[in-house]
Structures are given as structure tokens and as C-alpha cells.
Amino acid sequence: MPQRSPNEPRPSESDGAKRAAARGVAWGGVESAASAVVGLVLIVLAVATPSQADRWERWLQRRASRAHGKGAERWKRIAQVPRALSDGLRTAWGLIRTRAEAPLSAVGYWAFDIAALWASFRAFGHAPPAAVLVAAYFVGTLANALPLPGGIGGVEGGLIGSFIGFGVHADLAVLAVLAYRAISYWLPTLPGVVAYLRLRRTVAGWQAAPGGS
Questions:
Q1: How many Cα atoms within 13 Å fall on the side-chain side of residue 212?
Q2: pTM, to two decimals
């Protein structure tokens, strides 16, 4: 057996315990995130099936009819959610059945997006385990559901909070997530704004031309 050098530091039991505890916390967080995602999917499916969507819509509309002022408007908007979910699921299922490449495209998008996040972590230190990276990515991006323009601020906060919850150091999480969002969101957005303004000018020229509508 190879002999340990006298100057080589011996791993302490406390270090091993810390690593084991960190792995336990990480995997526990992954299991919790997976359970939350599965539960959310089941809730959406239960609400968005055609028969259930009609039932929920009628119930929410009755609540809206009994409310007044802003409360009534709020309930009317909420009453549109089950139908929207049902239509979205039906459309998504139709795309999956008619276009076999659609799920692969979604998986490819997620894979490359997570790879960009991994590269951001590597640029500032070390990347978390793959399971933690994937789970924190999907949990953090649920912040897209917040009513914020383009998810600005919500996604960053959701991702940073998710990684910190999974045991990633706060400084590393903040730097990596902000760099990732700068590359994946802000970098394409700036030239997109310029292209949008130029397109508006082009369309205005078409409309001003003889025969334009």
C-alpha cells in the first residue's frame, strides 16, 4: 500500500462529516424540488382537463358575480386561468403528437441554457453538482410566473435563492447567476431593441408608400 507522506495533511473526521452533510442537504433539496414540480404538474393537470376547466371556470365566475369593484375584476381574470391552461395543454399535446422534434427542441434548449449557467459558475469558482444545478435551475425559473416585465429581477432572485437553499455559497451564486442572466437575457435584448425600432421605421415606410395599408 502507498505510504502517506509525513507532511501530507490527514483528512479529519469533521471534514468528512461536513462533506457528507452537504451531499445530504443537496440531495434532500433535489428530492424536495422534484416532489414540488411533480405536485405542481398534477395540480395543473387536475385543473386544466376540459371537464374540470369548465367546472372551475363556472365556480370562479360565480365568485366574481358576488364580488364588487376591483374584487370582481380580479375574480374575472382568475376565472380565465383554467380555460387558458386547458387550451395551452391541448395545444402542447397537439404539437407533441404532430411534431416529434418539439420535445427534443425543448430538452436541447434547457440543456444549453443550463450549460451556460454551469460555465458561469466555473468562471467564478466551482460549479455545484449536476443534480443541484438542474434542480435549482428549474425551481428558480419558476419565478417567470411572477407578474414582472420579462421576469426582470424575479428570475435572478429565484435562481440565487434556489442555489443558496441548495447549499451554494451566496457570493458565488450571486456572481454566477448575474453573469448567466447578462449572457442569456440582456446580451440578446439590447440588439433586439435596436432591431425592433428599425423594423417599426421600415413598417411605417411601407404604410406611407402609395398603396400601403
A1: 9
A2: 0.53
